[in-house]
Task: structure prediction
Amino acid sequence: MQRQLIAIDLDGTTLNEESKLSSLTIRTLRELNKRGHVVTIATGRPYRSSAAIYEELGIRRPMINYNGALCHFPGRTWSEGYHESLRRDIALELLDQQDKLAIDLMLIEGEDQLYSRRLSFGDEDAKREGSATIGIYDWMRLEERGILSRETIFRDPTALLLLSQREHQPTIEQNINQIYGDYIDVKTWGGEAPVLEVIRQGVHKAIGVDTVARYYQIDAKNVIAFGDEQNDLEMLDYAGTGVMMANGNTTLQSVANEVTEYTNNEDGLARFLIDRFKLDF
Result:
């Protein structure tokens, strides 16, 4: 078999419902890497909140963060990498319109820090915003957050994270697109946290996957991509084999070539790869 590039989303795909890697998933991906295939993480998460997963997996390959806005090789200087930022003025305008747009909380991902108007959350916040929203802070360490203001955001940010009640997301996305649709794209995170991510227009995971594929001289027909949410759509469409998780968003059905038999909580990705590559542990 020709060398394959295996692009894996994290939340709702590679990770289980506890946001962890299973032992079977780790063994499967390491075995494929050992056989010469390329495994690359393509996630909406910032590197800060996915570095531990990268290290636990133990596969030293390029990585894609922020839904394709950042493509890099952790721990190395990599000339093929890139960083696509968002216009600062758009970020600040959205910050001013936060209440009008029914956004409960807006976070700005700076070049090296996350900015928020609040640094702690209590029981009243959880009751108002919902436990899933507050749960996103499990991987946001206090010391990594700075106070959000016009003065602290003096560079173009990488992305904006918009937290709201899940039922408000479609309206928020529609309203933002009506105003800034020529400049930005809005993506939906997988997993339980109800997060909308705003990034530069035209940026998506497929751009990062194509960058990695060209670096390793792997044709798109030999790319297998796994995803479960709207932000995986372009990546699955790009890949020769786009695989939708059994627990995936139905919007992916239009581009997916295959669907896993099992969900992310049942090692669906690992089981699919074991069968596809005829792995025998």
The two ends are 19 Å apart (CA to CA). The longest strand covers residues 195-200. Residues 117 and 148 are 5 Å apart (CA to CA). The longest helix spans residues 23-34.
